[in-house]
Specification:
Number of strands: 0
Number of helices: 10
Strand content: under 5%
Length: 223
C-alpha cells in the first residue's frame, strides 16, 4: 500500500463484502457501492436502538469537534492501545480525500466506542479481532499493528478484506474485518461529514428548481 489513496481503493473494492470486481457489480463505482453498503448496514452493524444510535452520533460529533479544536477525546470501552489501533484502522478504511475528512475526523472511533460500551453483542468480536490483528502482525513482522510499517499493515489487511480470496486460516480476521468495516462505515455515513460526503441534497430548498423537465413529463405521458 502506497498511502491513503491506495487504502481507500482497497476498502472500496471490498465494500460489498464479497470480493467481486467493479464490473461484476453492474458498473457502479466503488464509492457508490460503499455508500449503499454503509446506509444499509447502519442498523444491522450497530444492532442498537435508534435512541442509542443517536447518542453514539452525538458522541461522534463531540469527538469530531474536540479533534478539530485540538482537544482530547475520551473513551470508555476501548483500552488505550485498542483506541490507538482503532484510530489508525478506521482511517485506512475511510481515509481523508478531496471530498471529506477521514473516519477519525468524523469521530467514528467515539461512535464505535459508545456502541460497544452500550451493547455487549459486538464486544467480543471487535476486541478479539483487534487482538487477532496484533497477533497476526507480530507473527509475521515481530510488531503490533500500530508498530508495523504501512506496507506491512497493507499486507495483512489485503489478506482479510476480500472474503472470497481469503485463506481458511484467516477466517477469524475476515469475520472481524467485515464487522469492523460495517461499524466504521455506519459511523462515518451517519455523521454530518459523511452525509455531506454523500452529497445528498434532500430536504434542502432549491430556489433554482423550475419543475420537472419537459422530456421527463413527455416520457410519463403528461407533457
Amino acid at each position: 500500500m502506497s498511502g491513503n489513496g491506495e487504502a481507500g481503493k482497497r476498502k472500496r473494492e471490498a465494500g460489498s463484502g464479497n470480493g467481486r470486481s467493479e464490473g461484476e457489480r453492474g458498473g457502479l463505482s466503488r464509492r457508490a457501492m460503499l455508500e449503499v453498503m454503509a446506509i444499509a448496514s447502519l442498523a444491522t452493524a450497530c444492532d442498537a436502538s435508534p435512541a442509542v444510535v443517536e447518542k453514539a452520533k452525538k458522541a461522534a460529533r463531540d469527538a469530531s469537534a474536540a479533534r478539530a479544536n485540538g482537544g482530547t477525546v475520551t473513551h470508555k470501552f476501548f483500552t488505550p492501545h485498542e483506541w490507538d489501533t482503532v484510530e489508525v484502522l478506521v482511517d485506512l478504511i475511510i481515509p481523508r480525500d478531496e471530498r471529506s475528512g477521514s473516519a477519525t475526523d468524523a469521530g467514528v472511533p467515539a461512535f464505535m466506542d459508545f456502541i460497544l460500551d452500550e451493547y455487549e453483542k459486538n464486544r467480543l468480536p471487535i476486541r478479539g479481532g483487534l487482538a487477532w490483528l496484533d497477533r497476526e502482525c507480530t507473527d509475521r513482522f515481530g510488531a503490533t499493528f500500530l508498530d508495523c510499517t504501512a506496507p506491512q499493515r497493507a499486507a495483512v489487511l489485503d489478506d482479510i478484506a476480500w472474503p472470497k480470496r481469503a485463506k481458511p486460516e484467516h477466517s477469524q480476521g475476515v469475520a472481524f474485518f467485515n464487522r469492523f468495516r460495517d461499524l466504521t462505515a455506519s459511523g462515518f455515513w451517519s455523521s454530518k461529514m459523511g452525509v455531506e460526503d454523500l452529497q445528498y441534497i434532500g430536504n434542502v430548498i432549491n430556489p433554482d428548481w423550475k419543475g420537472c423537465p419537459p422530456e421527463a413529463l413527455r416520457k410519463l405521458g403528461v407533457g
